[in-house]
Structure formats: structure tokens, C-alpha cells
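Look over both lines before class:
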Amino acid sequence: MRQADFPTDIRDLLFPAHTDAQMVYECVGCEAQYPLERFLYTCPGCGGLLRICDLTFDNLLDIPGPLWQKIFDYRRMLNDEGLKGIFLFHELIFPIIPLDAVINLGEGHTPLVRANEELSSWVGTNFSIKYDGLNPSASFKDRGMASAISFINYMIKSKGIKELLGICASTGDTSAAAALYLSYLPHDVVRSVVLLPQGKVTPAQLSQPLGSGATVIEIPGVFDDCMRIVEQLAEEYEVCLLNSKNPIRIQGQKSYSYEVAQQLDYQTHDLVVVVPIGNAGNVTAVMEGFLDLYRLGIIEELPLIIGVQSEHANPVVLWRQSGEYRPIEVRPSVAQAAMIGNPVSFPKVSRLVEEHFKERFAAVQVTEQEIIEAMLIANRHGHVVCTQGGESIVGLKKGVEMGLVFPNQRVVVDSTSHQLKFAGFQQMYFEDSFPEGYDIKPREELKNRPIAMEASAKAIARHLGLKKKR
């Protein structure tokens, strides 16, 4: 629709008026603030993590929460490139970025699909799955990349940057998203580099940054080893770090919460949102997103957030149990994107929990066997979830058993990536070929494999037990 086609009371509010926003980096530790005129990832003063702070956020309170709901709902029908994707929520994500600098590759607005009765019965409660695997690079990381690469595009245009190298460490999804979005920018200005742990990324995921033209560097070790190197490179050299340690990434990932609220008609009373923890950037963004909506009166209640970790990578679970945080050494996991023993964004999580989600955050631990089987069972009931989605689903099942989730609550489960990226783990389950260390023993009733038969309708009918028509 065109602007003139909208109701008069909403017409002039469709395009953002919060263009004089003042945004800064703010340290989550010492609270020092720094201007957004360069790429910054840690506090120059104390070394703490940074977040993005809109110093003029309270100006948004001039518009009542119910009117914000109408603005966002009507805006979905507006055909303007700069207000599509995650930037539908422009005022809440990055109001200083002009609409003509926004990079939109079709990310966001992923469907919320209700689980059928059989799957809900297996889990113990009704729930819906948000398919973030239906983003352009097939994972939720596109939300943060749309924000980060739009900011880079804005910096190129406004600061006259002539040369830039974007770099990230990854277990697969981050590298795919970073390489895809960076490839949209001018190739004579921007280069893309990713570091991957050798042998610990699925072939499907490895193919993505290679296909987007990135320089892919594989090193021995796990994700944490890759992360240490890119952190050092970002500290000592002029590069743009694109991991979730970059607070500009988190801004985009907050759109997940905005969309969930919108898809539920902003009714968040008794809402439960289940997410895998991984590097803790996503769970940080989910909490911050709902907090934004709550502060503006767009929603009336913060949801319960359940973060899920495998017992092979569970530092946040151990922190919630003991009150003390310690990095751990990870073991192999089918939820590869969550196989992180020292989540970079943990300080943000701990502060958000302490200040806003003390009684509304739980961390649940699941086994590798439970993760892979939850993925298989969910997909056999009409879904397309990845291993991280399986981790979230069985985390919900555990949450029901632990008394964290009650009947009649609204529940949204995050499936962060597309199932096809992790088809290799499904095949290993079917073939009982998991390497030592995964602690998975397949069950016959969940195995599936093709059946070779002669090209004969009669033979196939006999095998299927079909009866002839009368």
C-alpha cells in the first residue's frame, strides 16, 4: 500500500520521526559511554562488554503503547525498502541509520507455527515454534547481520570509508550470515573473512561462506579458540568484528522479540519463550527486546525466558545452580552452534537477570540424546527444526517436568536454524555412526532409511500391505 491509502490517524506516523536520536556505546560494567563514530567492541576504560544505548529513548514515550502497536501493524503493509525486514521496528533498532542505508535481504518476520496435538502431548504442553531457519542464510544470525551491515553501509556513506575487512569466528551460522550480507556491499571496499574450527562445521554450513566469496580460515580447536583469535585481531588491527560481542549485532537480534509480540497481538501475559543459549548473544537480545516493548507500554508483562544448554556445554546452567560463573571445557555436541564453554555475552545476561528478569529467567540442562531425538520427533510431526531447535523443544519438555511451565500458558520455542544444515547429524543417527564423545545411542524406532525395491507396483503394494480396490 501507498502512504496515502492508510487511515488519516496513522498516515503521518508510518515513517520514523525519531531521526534525531542520540545513540552511544555504553559499558555494561563501568557504564562509560562512547560515541558511535567507530567500530568498538569492548570498553576502552575497563575492558567490559558494550551495549548500544539510545539516550533519547524516552522520547518514544510520547507515543502511547497501543498507538505503537498500530504503527508497527500498519507498517507491515507499507511498500518501502527501508522499513522492511527487521527495520520495520526502525525506532527500536537503529534510528540513526537513514532508511536509504538499510540493507534488507528479506530477513525477519519468520512464521510462528503451532505444534500439533501429538507433539504437544509428547512435550507436555501446547506450544508454537518460530522458524528462524527461514531467514535468507537459513538462521537467526541474519537479524543481527542486517543491523551490523546496515551500520557498516551507513559508516561507508557518512565517513567515507574506503577499505574495510569484516571478520568473525563461527561454528557455521554466523559465518554464513556475515559472508552473505557483506557480499552485498561494494567488493572494492569490503572484504569478508571467517575463522572456523576445523572439522567441527557441517559441510552445508561450510559451503555457505565459500559460496558468498569469503576467505575461510580453518584452525584446530573449538569455537572458543577461534573467538580468542578474532578478539585479538579486533583489538590490535583495523577490522570490523561481526560476532555477537559486537553490540550492533544485538540490536538487530532484538527484532525476534518484537515479532513474537506482534504475532501474539502483543498479549504477553503468561508468555514463555524458550531459546538455546550458545554464545548468549541471542538470549541477551531476546530479553532486551521484550524490555524495550515493556518500557514503551507496547506489552504489559515481561515473559519467562528459559535458556537451554546441553550438558556438554552448560556454564550458564551451572551458574544458575551455584551462583558462581566459570567457563568450562566443552565436549562434542549435535547442537554445534551452542557448543560454547565461555559465552561472550554472559556479563550482559547476568546483568539483565539481576535487574529485570530475576524471577523470569531459568536455565535448563538437556542431554545430547534428548537434543537429537527432539529434533527428529519434531520434524516427524510436520516441523523443520535444527538441532538447536531440538535443544529448545526438549528444554521446554524438561521445563514442564520441573514445574517451570504450566498448562494454558503461551509458549514460543526458538528454532534458530534450518534442519538441512544439520542433516549430517540426522544421518549419523540413522546409521548409528556418531563418533565417540557424543554420548548418543540411536533407537530403532527413530531410525529411517530408504528401501531399495524392484520397479514393480505389485511388489511395492505387497510391501506396503495395500488392498486391491473392489
Q: What stands out?
A: The chain has a mean pLDDT of 94. The longest helix spans residues 141-159. The chain is about 35% helix and 15% strand.
